[in-house]
Amino acid sequence: MNSVPTEEDVLDAFAAEPNHDAATFQRYLKEYPQFAVALVDLSRELSREIAEDETLSEREIAWIEKATREYSEGWASAAFAAPTLEQRRAAAKELRVPRQVITAILECKVAVETISRRTRRRLALQFNATVDGLVQALSGPQLSASRSYKADVSPSTGEKVSLEQVLREAGVSEDVIADLVSEDD
C-alpha cells in the first residue's frame, strides 16, 4: 500500500531539490496538483532575491534566534558522544544485562527518570561522560538510528517505557532488576 504524501512532505522535497528551475517546478505541479498554490508560494520564496543591505524583520530575527538556540542546545547534548561498540559491551557486562537493554537506553526508549541515580552514574562512567551529559542525552526524543526499514508510512515513536519494563522484557533476573532500579546508594 502506498502512502499519500502530505503537503509538508511535498514542499520539503521540493525545497531540497538541487534546482528550482521551470522543469522541476512543472514536474511537481504535474505530480501534486492538489498542492499547486503552496508550491507556487514556495517557488516564489525560493527564487526571491534578497538585497544584502536589507534589514531583517522582527519575525525573521526571532526565528533565527530560536533556530540558533535549538541548534546550540543540540550541541550541548553532543557533549555526550555516542558510545563505541566496546563501551556498549562493557556497560552491558557491568550492569549484567543483554546489550539490547543498553541499546534501548541509548535510543532514548527508556524514561531517564526510571533509571536509578546509581545506575546513571555507572553508565556515565562506562561511557566516559558526566551524569548530567548522560541524562541530557537520554532525555531527548526516541532515536532509531541503528534500525532503518522501508515502510509505506512514516514510523512513529511510542511512549518511553520504564527501565524495569525493558529489563523484564529482556528476561533479566529479579536481583539484577532490583539492583538497577533501586535508589539505594
What does this structure look like?
The chain is mostly helical. The protein folds into 2 domains: 48 residues, no CATH class; 89 residues, no CATH class. Helices cover 56% and strands 0% of the residues. It has 10 helices and no strands. Helix 5 crosses helix 6, helix 5 runs antiparallel to helix 7 and helix 9 packs antiparallel against helix 10. The longest helix has 20 residues. The protein is elongated, with a radius of gyration of 23 Å. The termini are far apart. About 4% of the residues have low confidence.
Set down the secondary structure blueprint:
Elements: H1 7-16, H2 22-31, H3 36-47, H4 58-77, H5 85-95, H6 99-106, H7 117-126, H8 131-138, H9 163-169, H10 174-181
Briefly, what is this?
It is built from 10 helices and no strands. The protein has 185 residues and is mainly alpha-helical.
